[in-house]
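A student in our group prepared the protein record below, which I am reviewing. What it holds is a sequence and that sequence's fold in token form. My question to you is simply how this chain folds and whether the tokens agree. Do not assume that whoever made the record got everything right. I have pasted the whole thing underneath without changing anything:
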Amino acid sequence: MGKSFLEAQPNPRMSKGSLLDIQMRKNQRKILIVDDQIFNINALKIIIQHSLKIDMSKICVKATSGKTALNHIQANIDQNR
């Protein structure tokens, strides 16, 4: 089995954010942000994007209700079966 993200030796030219971005794309992981206020969703998306230096447009899924969030989760489960 390969090394985990935390065990991998980083390339000196790659930033921490770049490594995280590569790892998340490799594992096809997503971030689900749920809030009934779109302002809060966008604010959190920007905070995560800038603090981790990752492209949130590729991994972020947004929902403005619990029902929509559960639908996203179920769709993701169905897609990965």
